[in-house]
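Section 5.1 Outputs to date
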Amino acid sequence: MDRHSQVQGGGSWNWPLLLSVVLLNICLPSLVLSYGVLLVHSTALGVPIWLGLSTPAIYVLTYGLTQCWCRDAADTWGGPVGYRVMASAGLLLVVASLILCVFVPYYFQPCIYGVLGGFGSSLISAQVDAVVFDTYDSHLGIIRGICFAGQAVGQSLFPHILSALIETYEYSFSYLVLAGIMLQTLPGIMLLKVNERPKRPVSFSRHSDKTYAIFNNEEVNGFIGELPLHDMSKKSWQSPSDDNFHRQEDGYEYDNEANVTITPPPSPEEKRRNIFGVEILPEIPEESEDSDDEYDDDDVSEIETDKNNKQRFSLAIKRLSTIGDSFDEYIVKQIRRDSEQTEGDVNENNKEYSEVEVTYDTISPVTDIQREKIFNSFSFRCQSAYASMKRKMRMPSYRVYRLRRRFVYVMYNINDTFIKPLTRSLSCWRFYPALMLCFCKLSLSAVSLVLMPMIATQVKPKISMTETNFLISLHGFTWVCFLLCTPWLAQTPKRNFKYVAVVGLFIATGASFVLAEANNHDSFSIGCVIAGIGYGAITSCWETSVQDFVGARKWPKLHSTLETLSATLLTFFVIGLCFFVGQEGGLQRSMFILGVILAAITAVWTIIAAVAIYVTKVRSLKLDRRWVFK
């Protein structure tokens, strides 16, 4: 396949870019997906469970609130360098959050880890999505499946890595080594670029019109859409019979120097010929005595008007000359009156004030001489300082104006980013089921996966940390097993994704109840396997299902609101769970509450899927039968 066919077919597989995207998806999402291991070790050091559980919620909240801004920034500042710079800034924030966790107390770690880490991950994710959408436009479904597979691999690997780091370098310094591991993704960020596509011809450009192609007289081999120009020097402008333009035998023959269109000379009006070749003289108007008399009277009147105009013009010139002379006198005679001082005036300078005569000689009528006193006393200085301060308070400087303008700009930006989409989304009834499905995905990521290692520590007999990490890896392996269906999902119509999402909701709800009732090693292992399959189905199909449900036109308007509002609901949900996790058996009770919420969301989407089946399948079959019987 050549380069041009690759452009028309949507681009080829850019393997370096694909490897960098997979590397970023392996490392960055593990900060949330594998945080349960850090939670287990932090609770062993005396950190409350509710404080550790709030860390991934803050991370997700920051990510959801900043994703819309980062996505707009990626569309505005993107480019061969912009994507790398913004992604590098995001990686710098992630690494800084992990390094600061080494030196701050445990109670401040959730804010630093969540806020800086979430904002940095949001920056990197926006750049990765922009590059992927611009490069893999025809393989987007497969690329998304590969990205989810990278997240599953990262979830399987990082629990073992974090346990090894904590055992070797202790809990605090393990953040420093983890920051070094995250820093290794910088080469992958340097590969985030969009390939420059080859320049297409003029006819294939969407920014130009075919009618504005460049015309020339040079002979071009092959088929072209240009029209040849005619040499107008061979055109006869006096008689059509002498025109030899149509008598060319060998086609259009031009000289090498005739590369520019030759403009025709103006046709002579004094010599014209009729169709028989006889010259036609120009018409001469006839003259009469009456016309001569009228012409003489008109000439006299015109001469008089010319004399009057000349007189007026000469008077205007004289006036301008006198005005110019007076201006010269005013400029020459301009002297400062206070510069001509006498000996008596020098003694007066030692006084508390001096006097300046302000005369108004140029104003008619002439007024009396007015005197103004310029004070140099302390009271006058205080009054002038008070007046200047009062003037500054009433008339603020340009800095205050800039601050006001920036504040107004931020308020308008917040209104356009959050308030307007929120009011528009709340007025659409399809937004609420979509919000439920998005909340389900976030709750499984930030609550279920984080509480799984803690539940393993309370199972009797207690499961060791090594076996817990193995079971979490088993969760990621079952997630990968579901992602093997990605080629089939890529060829599936969007309207069928909701059925797969409903199946994933059923499986995830059952896994939540199994983990809530797990009291031994076997039941916990079964719950991890089932949860992996359900989590894979929901993460792979929820966005496409919601997009098909709300409609292609409404999806861009609801997308940012879904992210922000679902992250906010997750934060409130985690705050409510903080009252249960500290109690005896509170972890499994929290999983039971999560299972109840998932059951309600499953019921809503089951109804939606049933209605869709009735409309698309059953109702259409009934209509077809009616037409057949008619």
